[in-house]
Design goal:
16 helices; binds calcium ion; TIM Barrel; Oligo-1,6-glucosidase, domain 2; five-stranded antiparallel β-sheet; binds alpha-D-glucopyranose
Length: 559
C-alpha cells in the first residue's frame, strides 16, 4: 500500500462526541448526532475529523478510560451507527481519525478484571504491579505522581500489591514491556483500520515505556517521575514496530500527543525515514501563558512567536507540524491569546485563524472554535465535571478550604471543562444541542454565539473559517513555503512571510485590542500585491506603513 501522506493537504475538525450533538434527548452527544451534522462539517471545507474516544467506557475520564476497544460507548450508539457515520464521512470526502488510548485501559476492562484475580492470572502482567515500600509495604512503590494529582499508585488489598496509574485510579497503565500487550495493541489498531479508519491520534503516547526498575523521580514543582516515563527507553522501538507491522500497510496517518517534546525528540518521532509516527502535538506554545504548565500567567507573546518559528524551521523538510490552539484539554483560545477582546470578538477570532492557518503543517479546528465559543463562567468548584478537578480537590483534602479560592481561580482560567460545554447550534432551547437536560451546562452566551446566527451573518467567524480553509488548501505557498518571521518594531504584532517559487505570502496579525502602527521592511514596498484574506471587510491595498485597527489582520500575496 502506498502511503500518500494525504495529511499534508488536510485540515482536521476535532469532535468531542459527548458535547457535540445529542440525537435522542438523553443530554449526551452521540453518533447519530454527529451523522446529522456531517453536511455542516463538510461545509467547513475540512477533509478529516478527529473523533475523541467513542469506545465502551465507564466514563471516569469521558472515554479516555476504555473498557472495550472494539465496541462503541453505549450512550453514543452502536457499532452499526459508527459504520453509518464513517460511511457518511467517506461519501463526503472526509477521513476519520480515531483516538487511540493505549497507555492505559479502564479498570473495568476485561484484562484488568482478570488481572485482579491474582498474581498467576495470565493478564496480571498486562499491567504494572509492584510491592510497596516500608515495613508492611503500605507506602507506594515509588514517588511518581499521577497527572491528575497524588500518588500514581493504587493499593490492591487482595494481593497486597500496587498498580501504576499515571492518570486516575480507574486508568491503570498497560505494561508495554510485555510482548502480549504490544500484540494486543497491534491487533486492535488493525481491527479499526480494516473497518476503514484513516488514522489515529495517539493519546499520551510518549508515556508508554517506563524506565526499568521504576526509580524515584526528582521533585519538579510537586510533580515527580516524568523523566522516567516520558520518551522512555523503548518508546522508539515500540512505535517503529507498530508502524512496520500495522500502520505502514495502510494509507493512514498518526498524530502522537507528546507533552514536553523538544524539536530533537519531535524529529525522532516524526522524521519520515524513522517510520514511527507522522506528526506530533507539541505543547510549548500552549504553555506560554502558564508557569509550570499549570499556573496561569500573562501570555509571553515574544516566546509564543519564537516557539512557532523554532518548530516551523525545526521540522522543515523532515517532519510535519501540527497547528492547533484548542482541543478538549485546553481552555478556549479567545481571550486566552487575545486578551480582553471587548466588542471585537469576531475580529479577534479571525485573527487567530489567520495566525495559525497560514503556517506550514496540519491545522486542527476544535468544535465551537469556528463560531468563536468562549470559556464558561464557572462560579464555584462544584460546577466542574472533570475528573481532574475532582482529583485535585481530593488530594488537597483538608487544605481545601483555604486553598479552594486559589484552586478555583486557576481552574477558572485553565480548566478543561471550558472546552467541553455543549456545542452551540442555535438560540433555541439548550442551544439546539439536546432536547433533554445537557450533561454539562451550556454557556449562557449561546443566545448570541451559535451556528444558526453565524450562518445568517456573511461576516461571521464561521464564514471566515470556510474562506480561510478553502484558501489554505488551494495554496502551494502555504503548503510548501519557507517560514520567516519578520520584525515590525512592534511588540503587539505577529508577522511572518511564507515564500515559495517566487511567490511571497505576507501574514500580518495584530494581537491587541488597540490600534497599532506597522512599519514594513523596505523590501516589502510593493505596489503589486493582492489582499487575499482580511478580518475587516474592506479592501486594504497599501502594503507599507499603516495603522492597524484592533486585531486587524491580513494576508497579502506578492507574485
Ligand atoms: C490525554 C487526553 C486527556 C486525557 C488523558 C488521559 O491527555 O487528551 O483528555 O485525560 O490523555 O487519557
Ligand atoms: Ca444522546
Amino acid at each position: 500500500m502506498e502511503r500518500t501522506r494525504w495529511y499534508k493537504d488536510a485540515v482536521i475538525y476535532q469532535i468531542y462526541p459527548r458535547s457535540f450533538c445529542d440525537s435522542n434527548g438523553d443530554g449526551i452527544g452521540d453518533i447519530q448526532g454527529i451523522i446529522s451534522k456531517l453536511d455542516y462539517i463538510k461545509g467547513l471545507g475540512v477533509n478529516a475529523v478527529w473523533l475523541s474516544p467513542c469506545y465502551k467506557s465507564p466514563n471516569d475520564d469521558n472515554g479516555y478510560d476504555i473498557s472495550d476497544y472494539r465496541d462503541i460507548m453505549t450512550e453514543f450508539g452502536t457499532l452499526d451507527d459508527w459504520k453509518e457515520m464513517i460511511a457518511g464521512m467517506h461519501e463526503r470526502g472526509i477521513k476519520l481519525i480515531m483516538d487511540l488510548v493505549v497507555n492505559h485501559t479502564s479498570d473495568e476492562h476485561y484484562w484488568f478484571q482478570e488481572a485482579l484475580k491474582g498474581k498467576n492470572n495470565p493478564y496480571r502482567d498486562y499491567y504494572i504491579w509492584r510491592k510497596g515500600r516500608g515495613k508492611n509495604g503500605k507506602r507506594p512503590p515509588n514517588n511518581w505522581t499521577s497527572r491528575f494529582g497524588g500518588s500514581a499508585w493504587a493499593y490492591e488489598e487482595a494481593s497486597g500489591e500496587w498498580y501504576l496509574h499515571l492518570f486516575s485510579k480507574k486508568q491503570p497503565d498497560l505494561n508495554w514491556d510485555n510482548p502480549k500487550v504490544r500484540e494486543e495493541v497491534h491487533a486492535l489498531v488493525k481491527y479499526w483500520l480494516d473497518l476503514g479508519v484513516d488514522g489515529f491520534r495517539c493519546d499520551v503516547i510518549t508515556y508508554i515505556s517506563k524506565r526499568e526498575g521504576l526509580p524515584n523521580g526528582k521533585w519538579n514543582i510537586g510533580i515527580r517521575g516524568d523523566e522516567h516515563f516520558t520518551h522512555g527507553p523503548h518508546i522508539h522501538e515500540y512505535l517503529h514496530a507498530l508502524n512496520k507491522e500495522v500502520l505502514s500497510n495502510y494509507d493512514c496517518m498518526t498524530v502522537g500527543e507528546a507533552s514536553g517534546v523538544t524539536i530533537e525528540q519531535g524529529l525522532m518521532y516524526t522524521a519520515e525515514d524513522r517510520e514511527e509516527l507522522d506528526t506530533v502535538f507539541t505543547f510549548e506554545h500552549v504553555n506560554c501563558d502558564t508557569i509550570a504548565q499549570l499556573l496561569p500567567c500573562k501570555l509571553r507573546f515574544k516566546q509564543f512567536k519564537k516557539v512557532f518559528a523554532r518548530w516551523q524551521a525545526g521540522l522543515r523538510g523532515k517532519g510535519w507540524n501540527s497547528l492547533y490552539l484548542e482541543n478538549h484539554d485546553q481552555p478556549r483560545s479567545l481571550g486566552r491569546f487575545t486578551g480582553d477582546y471587548g466588542e471585537h470578538r469576531k475580529e479577534a477570532a479571525k485573527m487567530l485563524a489567520i495566525a495559525m492557518q497560514c503556517q506550514q503543517g496540519l491545522p486542527y479546528v476544535y468544535q465551537g472554535q469556528e463560531i468563536g465559543m468562549t470559556n464558561y463562567p464557572f462560579k464555584n468548584l462544584d460546577e466542574y465535571q472533570d475528573v481532574l478537578v475532582a482529583y485535585v480537590r481530593k488530594v488537597l483534602g483538608v487544605f481545601e478550604k483555604p486553598l479552594a479560592k486559589l484552586v478555583h481561580k486557576v481552574f477558572l482560567i485553565r480548566a478543561r471543562d471550558h472546552a467541553r460545554t455543549p456545542m452551540q447550534w442555535d438560540s433555541g432551547v439548550n442551544a439546539g444541542f439536546t432536547s433533554g437536560k445537557p450533561w454539562m451546562p451550556i454557556n449562557p452566551n449561546y443566545v448570541d454565539i451559535n451556528v444558526a446566527e453565524a450562518e445568517q451573518d456573511e461576516d461571521s467567524i464561521l464564514n471566515f473559517y470556510r474562506q480561510i480553509i478553502k484558501y489554505r488548501l488551494g495554496s502551494d505557498v502555504i503548503r510548501n513555503g519557507l517560514y520567516k518571521e519578520f520584525n515590525t518594531g512592534s511588540k503587539d504584532l505577529y508577522c511572518y512571510e511564507r515564500s515559495w517559487e517566487g511567490k511571497r505570502l505576507i501574514v500580518i496579525c495584530n494581537f491587541k485590542n488597540k490600534e497599532v502602527e506597522l512599519t514594513l521592511p523596505n523590501s516589502f514596498a510593493y505596489s503589486e500585491c493582492s489582499l487575499e484574506l482580511h478580518n475587516y471587510g474592506y479592501d486594504r491595498k497599501e502594503l507599507k506603513k499603516m495603522t492597524l485597527r484592533p486585531y486587524e489582520s491580513m494576508v497579502y500575496l506578492i507574485v
